[in-house]
Amino acid sequence: MDLIFEKVNPWLHDLVSYIPGKPIEDVARELGLEPGQIVKLASNENPLGPSPVALKAMEEALRKAHYYPDGGGYHLRAGIAAKFHLTSDNVILGTGSNEIIEFLGHAFLRPDDNIVTAEHAFVVYKILAKLFGAETTEVPDPNLTHDLPAMADAINEKTKIVYIANPNNPTGTMVGQEELDQFVSVVPSTVLIALDEAYYEFLLNPPDTLKYIHDHPNVIVLRTFSKIQGLAGLRIGYGLAHADLIRLLQKTRQPFNVNSIAQAGALAGLQDEAHQDKTREVIREGRDFLQAGFAKRNLEYVPSVANFVLAKVGSGKGVFQKLLRRGMIVRAMDEYKLPEWIRVSVGTPEQNRRFFQDLDEVL
Length: 363
Hints:
Elements: H1 24-31, E1 39-40, H2 52-62, H3 74-83, E2 91-94, H4 97-108, E3 114-118, H5 124-131, E4 135-139, H6 148-154, E5 159-165, H7 177-186, E6 192-196, H8 212-215, E7 219-224, E8 237-241, H9 243-250, H10 260-270, H11 273-296, E9 301-302, E10 308-312, H12 316-325, E11 328-329, E12 331-332, E13 341-345, H13 349-362
Parallel strand pairs: 1-11, 3-4, 3-5, 5-6, 6-7
Antiparallel strand pairs: 2-8, 7-8, 9-10, 10-13, 12-13
Helix pairs in contact: 2-10, 3-10, 4-5
């Protein structure tokens, strides 16, 4: 029976799987706590939940759950295209933007290829590259912000994809329009530029990255409904790119990859501007509260433009474990090579206050 494992792709043996934030239910079961006692500020989720309009649309869609979903996602793709003044040919759907990162691997990566990322960027880029036998070149990021000139210099003849998370997870930092324009202008057209914008809706003046996709077929913009839309549990995201690139990526996609409930909720949530505005306000106020709280306690933090804050607490894993025992879930940063830091998602005002109460007890 063991002989089958000799046939496994060799690069899988040392592949380390992604470690998600601990679910509330797991913590309750492990620690003997009631779920209502637990606050989760670990996964950058929307503390307000989904739009009421999205909830209603999903309830209606449930009545037709015995039918297969629209495999092409016609209505959602059309809605996304209309919102961003594109065509449906510029849009691809995925089970979260993570799946679109996987599509890129299927389309472009082979063993011995490489991707380029910032040293402290979203770890999934590296994990999925490894899944295809490709290596990752990690470029140092001074002040925990992408160094785009250095990333451009790191590109070589084996580079297939460069990933830029903007704003970046887990640091909450971003690069601006001028830096992006310069970067796109110097990267060879044979290298794909993936602009991961999972948190772009939280920016007051986000860079215009959609302008690239018409004249640069090697650029794709990745976005998600998991964050400001509050639909993380449905796993739905999208990519925006030149029609030729989208047409290629469609060939890597499973026929019914995005379920009908997710499509209905995403389309309705996309159109609920009031819910998004309310979320932005809650995040802005909560982020200011967290940063002021860290400053008051003389704890170093990284000024953030996203819906989370990275803070230096000594032993990230130790503080994480102590907070966990109190029913407060945050994220330790060991897998990002930041062992002294924790990442704290912005919650409701009550949850943010509870976080500092628990933090004061464990420090």
